[in-house]
Amino acid sequence: MFRGFYTVGSGMIAQQRKTEMLANNMANANTPGFKAEQASIRSFPEMYMSSIETARIPTANGFQMKGLSPVGAVSTGVYMQETLPLFIQGQLRETELTTDVALIDGLLPADAETGIQGAIFFRLENEGGNEVYSKNGNFTLDANGFLTHPMGYYVLDSNGQRIALPNDDFQITPEGVIMAGETAVATIGVSFAGRPDTLLKQGNGLFATEDGANLPDANGVAGVTYTMQQGYLEGSNVDAARTMTDMLTAYRAFEANQKILQAYDRSMEKAVTEVGRVN
């Protein structure tokens, strides 16, 4: 009986966390470059149960021997093991702003061991001087003329340097080269993650490596191709209709577990107030 409480409770916690993840996806359905998260729900190892029985051996002394009679496997509950971002390309939308840039996936090699496809990101410098990565190309120019991310982080070029521009009158080629008139000012830095599933999510659509090391430049990785489109933004890859359906499914699963928990509670109440009553 008490084991049932823990099993049902673990199911409720897992569904609650999944609902919170889906709600965050829905809230960012219109955030440029946002990557939807996916939940991985797994069950705890099953417990194999047996009953202890005593058998009498037909001897003069009447020895008794204990044995095990198999009952079966019992589930010990479920848990949400992890959440992983989905790195597929979001749809492009036109903004006609010169500072908006969409990074479009081309050929991205898959990891030989896991088969997971790699991912590309804009290179950014955070307030601590470390590199972080994003697909959000909704850039602006700050007061000092530096190209910056919506979080205020500096956009880096292919050499890891901040990009300074005199004004917003510039063009960006499909290769990411920023042209001020006939002069090439810089090339927007793009990094490649061969194992994007190992990146740490920083919030606001930002990612960082586990050990703090910088990702390699995408142009130096064999087989990687990409293009950039000025005046466009990559939208979120959240499927709003699918997310809403998954939220309703998670809610119903939570509600079903809740009803089972209430049934257990009523059974325990009856055991205490009625079965154990002394007349």
Summarize this, please?
It contains 2 helices and 19 strands. It has helices at 2-27, 240-275; strands spanning 37-43, 47-56, 64-74, 78-85, 92-94, 101-105, 119-125, 131-134, 140-141, 147-148, 154-155, 171-172, 177-180, 183-187, 190-193, 200-203, 206-208, 226-230, 232-234.
Overall mean pLDDT: 87
**Major beta sheet, specifics?**
6 strands, antiparallel
User: If helices are DSSP runs of H or I spanning 4 or more residues, what is the number of helices?
Assistant: 2
Oligomer status? single chain
Q: How many DSSP E strands?
A: 19
- Globally, the shape reads elongated
The structural domain count equals 2
Q: How much strand?
A: 25-35%
Q: Could you spell the SSE succession in H and E letters?
A: HEEEEEEEEEEEEEEEEEEEH
Helices and strands: which structural class? alpha+beta
Report helical residue fraction: 10-25%
Keywords: Bacterial flagellum, Cell projection, Cilium, Flagellum
InterPro entries: Flag_bb_rod_N (IPR001444), Flagellar_basal_body_rod_CS (IPR019776), Flagellar_FlgE/F/G (IPR020013), Flg_bb/hook_C_dom (IPR010930), FlgE/F/G-like (IPR037925), LlgE_F_G-like_D1 (IPR053967)
Protein name: Flagellar hook-basal body protein
Main location: other
Question: What would your notes on this structure say?
Answer:
There is one protein chain. The protein is elongated, with a radius of gyration of 28 Å. It has two domains: 2-82 and 239-275, no CATH class; 89-234, no CATH class. The chain is an alpha+beta fold and 279 residues long. It has helices spanning 2-27, 240-275; strands at residues 37-43, 47-56, 64-74, 78-85, 92-94, 101-105, 119-125, 131-134, 140-141, 147-148, 154-155, 171-172, 177-180, 183-187, 190-193, 200-203, 206-208, 226-230, 232-234. A hairpin with a 5-residue loop joins strand 9 (140-141) and strand 10. The longest helix has 36 residues, at 240-275. Helix 1 runs antiparallel to helix 2 (240-275). The mean pLDDT is 87. The strands form seven sheets. Strands 7, 8, 11, 15, 16 and 17 form a six-stranded antiparallel sheet that branches. Helices cover 22% and strands 33% of the residues. It is built from two helices and 19 strands.
